[in-house]
Amino acid sequence: MARIVAADDDDSMELNTISSVHDSTLGQLLKNVSDVRKMAIGDETPVHESLNRDDDYDGYMRTVPFVLSFDNLTYNVSIRRKLEFRNLFPRGSTTEDPEIAQTVRPNTKTLLNNISGETRDGEIMAVLGASGSGKSTLIDALANRIAKGSLKGTVKLNGETLQSRMLKVISAYVMQDDLLFPMLTVEETLMFAAEFRLPRSLPKSKKKLRVQALIDQLGIRNAAKTIIGDEGHRGISGGERRRVSIGIDIIHDPILLFLDEPTSGLDSTSAFMVVKVLKRIAQSGSIVIMSIHQPSHRVLGLLDRLIFLSRGHTVYSGSPASLPRFFSEFGSPIPENENRTEFALDLIRELEVSAGGTRGLVEFNKKWQEMKKQSNRQPPLTPPSSPYPNLTLKEAIAASISRGKLVSGGESVANGGTTATSTTLAVPEFANPMWMEIKTLSKRSMLNSRRQPELFGIRVASVVITGFILATVFWRLDNSPKGVQERLGFFAFAMSTMFYTCADALPVFLQERYIFMRETAYNAYRRSSYVLSHAIVSIPSLIFLSLAFAATTYWAVGLDGGPMGLLFYCLIILAAFWSGSSFVTFLSGVVPSVMLGYIIVVAILAYFLLFSGFFINRNRIPDYWIWFHYLSLVKYPYEAVLQNEFSDATKCFVRGVQIFDNTPLGELPEVMKLKLLGSVSKSLGVTISSSTCLTTGADILKNQGIVQLSKWNCLFITVAFGFFFRILFYFTLLLGSKNKRR
C-alpha cells in the first residue's frame, strides 16, 4: 500500500490512495507506477491524476506510460587540419604553444559530453543553449540520426534499448525548415501524410476523420482550404506553416516526437501557439522533446523539463520551477520579474567567454543533481529502469495501439490462452504496400504540377518554338547532295535538342530533396516507390512533347518514310526525351544545387553531341576516345533517325552531274559537267549518264559509319539508357539520403 501526494503545481492534483495493487486496473497501476518513479527520483513535474470515476475510465485506459531515458551520450567529430601557406615550411623553433598546436593538428571536437536525462509521456522536454551548444546534436542523437558507432551511450524506452526499425515506427522528427509542397492546401497536405503513414487496413473515412481532428488540434481550421504558398503564391502564415509541418509528422500519433527549434523565426504569439499545440500532443500520451532558442515566459509555462547545454556539457537539468533555486545556490540569483531562461542563457554566455568557462557551472549541476536525488530519495516501487517490470516495450506499444494510438502500420495481436491473454506487436517496415505508395505519390505530384500549369506551358512552348525554327530553316529539303547534308545537320540538332530541353527537369527533385529525405527517414514510403512514381508521372508529359515536336517538324522538313516512318520518328523522339529526362533526374540526385547541375548538364550534353558521329565519323575518332562515342546518349537516336530516313534502297540522292555538287567543280556550266562525266565514264569503263544513280541511302549510312546497329536496336538502347539512369537515381537516393550524421 502506498500514498502518493502531488507536488504544488497549477496542473497537478492530489492522487488517491492505491488501496490494493492487485485490485488496480492495469492502466491505473502503470500510471501510478510512473508517478511513484517521479517522486522517487525527486522530479518536481506534476504527477498524473488517478481516475476512479467511471466516465473517466475509458479515457484513462487509452494511455500507457512511457519513459525515455538517455545516459552518458557522447559524440565526437574529427576536425581536419586546415592547409595554410605558413604550415608548408618548417619553423626554426621547435617549441609550440599548446593552444596553437591544437588548432592545426588533426583532432576531435566533442559536441556532446556525457549527456544524461529522462522524460516521460505527457511531458515536453526542451533543450536550450546558445548557438553551437549542441541542442540540435542532442535531438539528433535521441532520434537516431547519428550513424551507429559514432555515438556513445544508451537511449532506452521503458528500460529497453530502442531498435532503429522500431524507433522509425513509433517516432517522428520535425525539421527546423518548413518543407512542404507549395500548391497543396493544408487539408490535402495532411491527407497525403495520412495516406503514407496510416495503414491500408484503416478505411479512408477514418483517415479523413483523423485529418479533421488533427486540423482542429493544430488550430488551423480557418486555413484548411488555403494553399501552403511560396514566394510566388500567397498562402498561409509562417506560424500556420510550422503547425502544418508538425501535423505531417504526427499524423500517425507517434509515441516519441522530436522537433528541431519549432519556434525559430516565429513571433512570440505564433511560437506560443506552436508550443501550445505540442502540449496537447504530449497530453495525448506522447513524449515531446524539442530544442528551443529562447522561450518567452508564456512558453516556459508550458514546458515540463529543461536541459541547458554549453559546448556539449549539461549545465542544468530539471523543471522550470527549480531554476531560481538552482541559480540562487550557485550564487547568481535570478532577479524578480525577469525571464528565467533569458537570465540563465545570458549567464551561460558570460561564463563561456570568461577565463574559466562554464566548468564551474557544470560541476555544480552534477553536485546539485546528486543532492536533489538524496534529499528526495524514496523506496522505489519498481526498478528505476522500467515503469512496469512485467510489460515489455513491444507489449507496452501494442497496448498503446489498442487504446487508440495510431502508430504507423502497427497492429496489436491478441494471443488467447486459458487463463490470460497477452498482446504482441506486429510492426511492418512500411505502412502500405508499394503499389499504394506509387499511387499516392503520383497523385500528389500530378496535383501539385496541375496547379502550376505555367511550368509545363513553358516547356511545351520551348519545344514547339524550337521545332518551328527548325521547320522554317530546313523547309522542304530536297534529295540533292546539299539536301542530304542539311538533313544530317537537322537530325543532329533535333536529337540534341531533345536532351537539352530535358534540363528543366533538374530543379524538380532538387526542390523536393529535403521533403523526400524527411518522409523516407521514418519510412513513410519506399525509395523505390518514389523512383517509379517519378518515372510514371513524367511519361504523359514526354509523350505530349514528342508528338508536338514531331508534328511541327516531320512534314515541314519533308522527311521520308510514310506512316511507319512517322511512327518510328515519334517513338525515337519519345525515347530520346525519356533517356534525357532520366539522365537529368539522375544528376539531380547527385549535384547539391541547381546552378551546379545546369553547368554539368550542359557540359556533358555538349560532349555527347561531339562524339555522336555528326561532327566526326566513328571511324575517325581516336581509339582513346572511342569509348565516349558508345556512351553518347545522342549517338543512338541520331543513328536511328538517319536509318529511318535513308533506309529506302530504291531512293537515289546523287544522280549524274550531281556528283560534282559540294565541290569546286560544282560552279562549272552544265555542258562542261556532262563532258567531265563522260570522261569519268570512259576512264572507269562504265556508262554514267545524267540520270544514273550514284549514291543511295545505304551509301550515305555507310559513309557515316552507321553499319553496326539497326534502327530498332538504337531505339531499344536509348530506352534502356533511360531505365539505367533511373536505377542509378535509385542508388543515389539509397546512398545519399541516409539522413544521419557521421
UniProtKB/TrEMBL annotation:
- Domain ABC transporter, which positions? 83-336
Q: Which Pfam families match?
A: ABC2_membrane, ABC_tran
Give a yes or no for keyword Transport in this entry: yes
- The reply on keyword Repressor is no
Q: Name one GO molecular function term.
A: ATP binding
Compartments (UniProt record): Membrane
Alphabetical GO CC annotations of the entry are:
membrane
Q: Which domain of life is it from?
A: Eukaryota
Q: Which residues cross the membrane?
A: 456-477, 489-510, 531-554, 566-587, 594-616, 715-736
Q: Which InterPro entries does the UniProt record give? A: AAA+_ATPase (IPR003593), ABC2_TM (IPR013525), ABC_transporter-like_ATP-bd (IPR003439), ABC_transporter-like_CS (IPR017871), ABCG_transporters (IPR050352), P-loop_NTPase (IPR027417)
Q: What SUPFAM superfamilies does this protein's entry cite?
A: P-loop containing nucleoside triphosphate hydrolases
Q: How does it sit in the membrane?
A: Multi-pass membrane protein
Provide this UniProt record's keywords sorted from A to Z: ATP-binding, Membrane, Nucleotide-binding, Transmembrane, Transmembrane helix, Transport
**Which PROSITE patterns does the record cross-reference, listed alphabetically?**
ABC_TRANSPORTER_1, ABC_TRANSPORTER_2
What family is reported? Belongs to the ABC transporter superfamily. ABCG family. Eye pigment precursor importer (TC 3.A.1.204) subfamily.
Query: Which PANTHER family does UniProt cross-reference here?
Result: ABC TRANSPORTER G FAMILY MEMBER 1 (PTHR48041:SF12), ABC TRANSPORTER G FAMILY MEMBER 28 (PTHR48041)
The name this protein carries in UniProt is ABC transporter domain-containing protein
